[in-house]
Amino acid sequence: MVIAAEAIPPYLRHARTGPRGAREAALRRLHRTGLPHPKMEDWRYTNLAAIAQKDWRRAPAERNPPSPPSLAGDDACARLVFVNGRHAAAASSNHFPRGLHVSPLDESQVAQDRPFESWHDLNTALFENGLWIRLDAGTVIEKPLEIVFCSTHPAQPSAHHARLLLELGEKARLNIVENHASEPGGAARLVTGITQTRLAAGARLCKAGMFRQETADQALLHESVAIAEAASCDYTLLNFGGGMLRQSLEMVHAGKAASSSLRAFNLADAAHIDLLTLVRHEARETRSGQDIRALARNRGRAVFQGRIHVARDAQKTKARQMHRGLLLSAGAEIDARPGLEIYADDVQCSHGSTCGDLDEEALFYMQSRGIRRDAAEALLVSAFAADLLEEAQDLPLRARLCALLAERLCA
After folding, report:
1. Whether 223 contacts 277, CB under 8 Å
2. N- to C-terminal Cα distance for the chain?
3. Residue 309 and residue 319: Cα distance in Å, rounded?
4. Cβ contacts of residue 93 below 8 Å, gap of 6+?
5. 371 vs 347: CA distance, rounded Å
6. pLDDT tens digit string along 76-115?
7. pTM (two decimals)
8. Where are the beta strands (DSSP E) in 32-157?
């Protein structure tokens, strides 16, 4: 189904993107196809009508950009800050470790990208001050690179769009801490962000990301990861929502023995969070693992849609996907749709999903030992969430993430 032109956000209908090129082509496609809608299979749980109908304005550039609190602390090797979708050089590091290069992202570098979903054309047409981050072959950086995305409080509904290209050379290693946060107050915000990641043979990327937005915010995020032979990526994602968050992650295991792991926790507290993962195995002996947790309360809704695709030539693949959901109040909702699509015959693949409320027997046991019911509930919820972070390799970062998670769960 094609959405009519009226479904395009009003501020795009007469947008100008400069010379003919990737931006103009993206804008033409967006006018032709419109935004995704619930009649599309991957969008059956999330409706973007509120985005399409609002008259968004371009988010202002801040002359004195704020400096959000650091998630990596003093452990970071460098810090890159985006304010309202634009790289804020004044708030970012000027010097980087040897072998790590940061430069502006050119339009030509996104010209050949295949849009994963139609809203990507919105980002391609309108992103400003994107960055190209590359790590030389053989370079190993132990301290994390921190990337911060900050949204200021606008006087009227505003939109901004961030774009990153990340490339790791052969046998390079990098840790990234990514932090999305909004200043409280102000009008509604529309946030889109796309990150394209390319890992050369033998490269290793570890990434921890946290998303914290305000209740009036609407956010669309996507990351694609191309994993070459013997390369690997390890992701830990904590999503604390806002108004609406749609996050998609595409991992392509393109080379022999490529591997990936994903741990994600979605806290839908009076919020709508929709996580979509697409894991493609295209080569032999590839590995992937997904452990997804969701907690919904106060009429919040958490959605997980996961697909694993194993190509005919991807023999000896091992892929695992598990989703667990916890409902804490009446009116809250959790939807899960895991799936496997296998064309090879010598593989080990599994997927599953469970959902329920707190275990009454466990609560009764703790109460019989003198623990108040509210304290017992808090202990069970914390255990359900914190268990996900046990495999995080950066111990100081894991401690900070656990503390922030506990703070959110007790809010």
Report:
1. no
2. 41
3. 10
4. 78, 79, 80
5. 47
6. 889 999 999 999 988 899 899 999 999 999 877 776 667 7
7. 0.91
8. 57-58, 78-83, 86-87, 100-104, 131-135, 145-151
